Amino acid sequence: MAQRSSLGLPAIANLKNKPMLRAWPYLLRLCLLFFAISVSAGATGADDAGTKESLDWLGKARLAAEALNYAGTFIFQQGSQVRTSRIGHMGSGPQVLEKLEILDGQPREYLRRGDEITCYLPQEHRLIIQSHLAGKAFPALPVERSEQIAHYYRARNIGSARVVGRETQVIALEPRDAMRFGYRLWLEKSSGLMLRAQTLSETGDIVEQISFTELNIGNVAPSRLKTSFPNTQGWRIENAMVSKMLTSAWRVKWVPGGFREIQVAKRGLGSSGQAAPRELIQLIYSDGLAGISIFIEPWSPQRSAIQIQQGAINMVGKRHGEFWLTIVGEVPMAAILKVADSIEMTAIK
Fold first, then answer.
1. Alpha-carbon distance 290 to 264, whole Å?
2. What CATH code would you report for 241-345?
3. How do residues 77-106 score in pLDDT, each as one tens digit?
């Protein structure tokens, strides 16, 4: 869960590109789209002492990331890899301005204005423009109704700690089954803003973590939210258009408990001036913390079945008749494989 991690996907056109795959934990919140879960049968978490207090902290963290102005630098660690990014955030809702800069490797910059995100790739002289439906970038917390989380995670207050010079409350979210990861969150005591997050494997090992190393809350200079590349004359512009769909011909017969379909979208991928952009369908599922996305597009002979595991992100690519399915999410590989085997086409709509 950390950019969360794992708690934001680059342009969908790069899904099969391994170098871009390394950027997923920074951006998964921007495209996997996390929503609240519905109440369903199961454990309520009421047996855990302090559950309500811990869940209240999650709600406070979500509101803080939406309402506060802040700017800072954070590091993302995945195994031996460490990446540094810089973020600035101002405003909320349709007036939000947010800038995310990837400081290691090839320069990349993401500028969000309300419901639109522009990705700047200066070395390639390329711009990717896409709709921002509901994604969230670190330090945002995707939980909309934190009390629902207790059905599938045990929420516990496990103490206090200092992060980047600020006092924090540490919250543990322990999965109630083997089909999701666990998390530890460090939330600033005064504001609730998330300052650090860790994603834990089924055995309790840290698979990803993300943490501010420098942070300013309150006063953010507007200049920090302007693009570093104002002159894009001659750059190639790619539109990753997104439109919501009421339904699709595809059915997923199994997802982990607590996950529900929260959106069906159609994505168009193409450069400016291209007559017929490539289209794919995206089915989006969430349990309120983790997300699973299924991308469906025409199959081509150049593709072959794949399995990729990188930190908390697992991905499977497989053929389904004349279509190619890419299943990606922040859940264990066993869950991704089971989801992949349950996908079927019901009818052409």
1. 17
2. 3.30.200.100
3. 987 889 999 999 998 877 889 999 999 999
